[in-house]
Amino acid sequence: MDAPRPRPYQPDGGLPARRVPVRWELAHDENFRRVVRRGTVTAHPEFHHTVHVEVPHLAPDRVFHYRFRVGDWTSPAGRTRTAPVSRARVSELKLAAVSCQAYADGYYTPYAHLAQDDVDVVFHLGDYLYEYAVNSVGNHRNYTDRTLPAVFDHETVTLEDYRLRYALYKSDPDLIAAHAAHPFVVTWDDHETENNYAGDTPENTVPPEEFLLRRASAYRAYWENQPLRRPQRPDGPDMRLYRRLHWGDLAQFDVLDTRQYRSDQAYGDGARLPGPAVDDPARTMTGATQERWLLDGWQASRARWNVVPQQVTFSQRKLDLNPVAKLSMDAWDGYRASRRRVLDGAKAAGVDNLMVLTGDVHVGYAFDIKDDFDDQASRTLGTEIVATSITSGRDGSERPANWTTYTTANPHLRFYDGRRGYVTVALGRDAARADFKTVPYVTRPGAPLTTAASFVTEVGDQGLKPA
Ligand SMILES: [Fe+2]
């Protein structure tokens, strides 16, 4: 049988509206001589011919290679790996954290480097795509030999819009290489749906019932196009994305969703002076159910490191030098009562080695998480590592204009770099090491990768020290 040939950027993907059988293979070796498991899965037109293969009972802590076949066509091979079982004693895990990859802002050069990097798993912390129009305005990729189709020249609203946008992003060779090299654990932020939405409240004046139709389309296209399992399959505008993963006895990952259940931003969003709303215990970043799940999970945790991959800046970040400074109402600073409950829950659970992984802000930060951010003598409860963007914000600079203000106003901010790149974190039994990796530009291809700074934090003695 001839394989159907997809035509990118066609509303139906260029595929006929019929079910397509897809054969898959999983092997120990990249030449597929030692096949471990194989099967056939149906690609449904209702899911835009995407497939999700779940292979239970694989050997833990091993690398595998996978590929797909349709008719006479065989896909390139991808590499993935299983985690060690949660009771296994594990000495090290090396992860990468990435976020924010606006397609038109530049080339995915950091992903080309990440594809070659030695990591066990990649955490994507959101803004995998942007809903804004992609056109010649502000486009920092070179399209001299390939004109960007007009179909992308508007904001994504419908299911078809979101599906096409994933097709565009996923056509990037560096992103393809990164996915093929490493397993990804994904969570979303706002732009996979709409800038700065909060629960069922959109950014603009669209009524919630109309916005939820858009959210349903965005969530469905996200699930179709990401490595997610059946429990994450959306039901209308609802999708259970927060979930818990273990890496032996070394790390417990509580992957959060801080968009779907949050209260609307206080004071109209943006940079604002904090008022009573930010300390109102009725407002929430996680929703009550997810918060309970997180705190219960910490109570039950036996892991050496408790890592929280999530979206928006967790630590206090004063945006000016005034005694009462403006704060970002979209970040945890706008939900201080919610943050207090989370930190009190970590303390009550005896979580000693807490690490928060964050995206969203298009710069790299390293924070000590203080029990009281306004008292630098208070206990350090953990560390927050903020991964800069892959491309969003274009080239950036090492020291943005507000560098001195931010580092002066926030003594617990130990590192701030405004260039593109990603972070790797090596978790060990005695310490964790974070390496902030940056490229000097993304608006031209081929930038080299350098390590801008490295920090360690020791088990039982939280707080970042230069490595
Ligand atoms: Fe972003």
The end-to-end span amounts to: 57 Å
What average pLDDT do the residues reach?
Answer: 95
Give the C-alpha Rg. 22 Å
Order of helices and strands: EEEEEEHEHHEHEEEHEEHEEEEHEEEE
Helix content: 10-25%
User: Are there runs of 5+ residues with pLDDT below 50, and where?
Assistant: none
Largest sheet: 14 strands, mixed
> Strand pairing plus helix content: what structural class?
alpha+beta
Instruction: Compute the number of helices.
Output: 7
Assembly type: single chain
Q: What is the count of β-strands?
A: 21
Q: Roughly what fraction of the amino acids lie in strands? A: 25-35%
Broad shape: globular
Bound molecules: fe (ii) ion
Question: Can you describe what's shown?
Answer:
This protein has 467 residues and is α+β, with helices and mostly antiparallel strands. The protein is built from 7 helices and 21 strands. The protein has helices at 109-116, 159-169, 173-181, 208-225, 288-300, 336-348, 403-409, and strands at residues 20-27, 35-43, 63-70, 73-74, 78-81, 92-98, 121-124, 184-186, 243-247, 251-255, 271-272, 305-309, 327-328, 354-358, 364-370, 380-386, 396-397, 413-428, 431-439, 450-458, 461-466. Strands 6, 7, 8, 9, 10, 12, 14, 15, 16, 17, 18, 19, 20 and 21 form a 14-stranded mixed sheet that branches. Strands 1, 2, 3, 4 and 5 form a 5-stranded antiparallel sheet that branches. A hairpin with a 2-residue loop joins strand 20 (450-458) and strand 21. Helix 1 (109-116) runs parallel beside helix 3 (173-181) and helix 5 runs parallel beside helix 6. The longest helix is centred in the middle third of the chain and has 18 residues, at 208-225. It starts with 19 loop residues before the first strand and ends with a strand. It binds fe (ii) ion. The site of fe (ii) ion (FE2) has 6 residues, from loops.
